[in-house]
Amino acid sequence: MWKQAETNNETFIKVQTTSNYTSTPLTAFLLTGVPGLEDFQIWMSIPFSFMYLLAVTGNGLVMAMVIWDRSLHEPMYLFLAMLALNDVLLCTVTVPKMLLIFWQGPSISTFPACLMQMFFVHALFLSESAILLAMAFDRYVAICAPLHYTTLLTGSLISKVVLALVARSVAVVTPGVLLILCLHFCQSNVIHHTYCENMGIAKLACNSIVPNSMYGLTAALLTTGLAFVLISLSYWLILRTVFRLPSREARTKAFGTCGAHTCVILIFYTLAFFSFFTHHFGHHVPRHVLILLANLYLLVPPTMNPIVYGVKSKEIRMRALGLCAQPK
């Protein structure tokens, strides 16, 4: 089966490359997986499958608890449920296709399917950073302006936040997709990756990709980068307020409400920034390392987030234990 797939893929590459040189529109891409580690991909699928299963189960459990337990219908937990939903969608957009490549070898993805995957990967990644920013604002109001918490963070405001983060993601990612549609592909259509992403597609083009590169970098700085600055600012204000509290018990309680969110932010941004800077400035980093990083920063946060909140949040932990203890 593996040999047959390789033969079919080689034929596909040759035919597609020939048609590209004769100006025939590109119809599909070939995703090859992790370059240099093809012989180990079947073994790599084991931890990735486990992480995906854990991410879907853990985040699904978080969403179920928030939906069914009315005592958790508070801004903090509603934002947590939004984060859990976004995490399930983010890893589901990439992991099944990646596992298919690990199990069966290089896989063909049609041009529209590749663009759609690219759109959702980048849009969901942007919405992840926006949700983390909303959660930071929630913690800021709860600690720095507790008397105004119920009047500021209303159901109406949360609904507007949801609409705003969806609109923001669509508005930022759509121009990137349109820039891809403006490119001319006359070379190889082989993407050495496990999923379709903006620069991975753009680098196959014959004409200049400077607009794509500049827009991608600018969009990343003005969205995810700006969100990180605002999150850092909110936590600086939170720390300044906490250290002014009179009692040690009050300071400990305040830190406890922010502990889980801080861990989630560190996991998300550490992997994202490391992958981003390695891709742009790590010219001597092996390609397989870059591809693995690109997969891990999309899969590790969805896997770890429900675990972190289960350990750090007393309410989530108690509800989870209550669900497990219910008689069947």
Question: How does this structure look, described?
Answer:
With 328 residues, this protein is mainly alpha-helical. The protein has helices at residues 2-21, 41-68, 75-104, 111-144, 149-152, 155-181, 198-202, 210-242, 248-281, 287-312, 314-325, and strands spanning 28-31, 107-110, 190-191. Helix 2 (41-68) runs parallel beside helix 10. It starts with a helix and ends with a helix.
Profile the largest sheet. 3 strands, mixed
**What letter string, H or E per element, gives the SSE order?**
HEHHEHHHEHHHHH
Mean pLDDT: 84
Number of helices: 11
What low-confidence regions span 5 or more consecutive residues with pLDDT below 50?
1-8, 10-23
Residue share in β-strands: under 5%
Helix/strand/pairing class, anyone? mainly alpha
The Cα radius of gyration reads 22 Å
Main sheet: which strands, in order across? 2-1-3
The residue fraction in helices comes out at over 70%
First-last Cα distance: 44 Å
Q: How many DSSP-defined strands?
A: 3
| Overall body shape | globular
Notable features of this structure?
single chain, 328 residues, mainly alpha, 11 helices, 3 strands, disordered N terminus
Outline the secondary-structure elements:
Layout: H1 2-21, E1 28-31, H2 41-68, H3 75-104, E2 107-110, H4 111-144, H5 149-152, H6 155-181, E3 190-191, H7 198-202, H8 210-242, H9 248-281, H10 287-312, H11 314-325
Parallel strand pairs: 1-3
Antiparallel strand pairs: 1-2
Helix pairs in contact: 2-3, 2-10, 3-4, 3-10, 4-6, 4-8, 4-9, 6-8, 9-10, 10-11
Please sum up the structure shown.
The protein has 328 residues and is mainly α.
